[in-house]
Amino acid sequence: MKIKVNKFVREYLEEFNVLMSYPNGKVCRYKDDEIINVPDTGFMEEYSTINKGNNACQMGSFSYSNAIIPRLDIKMGRYCSIANGLSFIAGKHPLDTISTSSFIYDPNFYIFKDASMERIKKSYTHTPYGMLIPPSPPTIFENDVYVCTNALLKPGITLHTGCVVAQNAIVTKDVPSYAIVGGSPARILKYRFDELTIKRLLELKWWEYHFADFDNIDPKKDINYYLDELEDRIIKRIIKPFDPKKMQFEELIQRSKQQILITKPTSQSSLQPTPQEQIKLLQDKINNLEINYQKALKTKNHLSYKLGEALIRANKNWYKGGYIKFIFEVIKIKKEHKTNINNTQGKAYQ
Asked: How far is CA 134 from CA 57, 70, 274, in A?
């Protein structure tokens, strides 16, 4: 399915660390309004990426492709490495019909479209390709599959865990686990390990673990030494299987349909009141302040009343530095008020 990238798509991809830019693995490599093709269903596990093109496919953690993905129905496991130039054998023409020509099944057979109109006054009635040639099943890349440059694959085959497809190989059938195949058509050249080691690798299912859990196991040592160390960590429960987050294509499609609400900027006049409105607002504030003080205070000699009057004067004379004068006036009012209280108390004792 074709979807258009927006901020919700990018945020979702970045949340799961999939389809990120290289080498900065934290930033989505697609821009807003860019069109990408994704499967209708399936997932990409976190830390998987496709470094070229606008097609995506199901992919497990720590797998990457430097090739443009040619088909959306690929299902890829973990730790797969895909080099440039991956392609698939094109769909064949039907061989058991009156002709192998695409006029039979292709509604876009424009080469001779006018010829049909001239002959029978209408377009030729095509038979859908899928009714003549059954669609191939998904192409499966299991785990730790390494596909070298310019490999050509037959759709619907399975590349089993640990296998290697050599450069320029044409692969027309399934490849066994840990086999290295090459040639045209590809044949098994050798196996990466002996039969017992392959059996041990498949039983251990090491790809179910995070590669960081293998830290400090020396890869230069014999493979069975490596597996001994790894098994020891598993048995002692020093490490446990990795459970990655999964970015679901269905959710990605839904997010591509979300609309970004854009609010129209308000005019400057509506953001700030006019000078006349500002004066009116200030007058209203002063009036309310005066009314509140008159209601609240019973005597003009009350300290709060005097301070209120000073504040009102400061408001009225703000353009003449009223607020600066207000500070000194408050000091003066407090001092006079204290003196009046002392005098009043002195008279009361006489």
From this structure: 21, 19, 74
Q: 179-183 and 164-165 as β-strands: parallel, antiparallel, unpaired?
A: parallel
DSSP, collapsed to helix, strand or coil, labels residue 145 as coil
Are 1 and 39 spatial neighbours (Cβ–Cβ below 8 Å)?
Answer: yes
Q: Per the omega criterion (within 30 degrees of 0), is the bond before 23 cis?
A: yes
Query: What's the rounded Cα separation, in Å, for the pair 284 and 38?
Result: 62
Q: What are the C-alpha distances in Å from 39 to residues 19, 30, 54, 67, 138?
A: 14, 17, 12, 17, 12
Angle subtended by helix axes 195-204 and 223-235, to nearest 10: 30
What are 79-97's pLDDT values in tens digits?
A: 999 999 999 998 888 888 8
Are 316 and 285 a contacting pair, CB within 8 Å?
no
How many CA atoms lie less than 13 Å away from 244 in the CB half-sphere?
25
Whether the model pTM is above 0.85: no
Catalytic residues: 93
**What is the strand order of the sheet 140-141 is part of?**
75-76, 140-141, 158-159
Residues 24-59 pLDDT 10s: 667 888 999 999 999 999 999 999 999 999 999 999
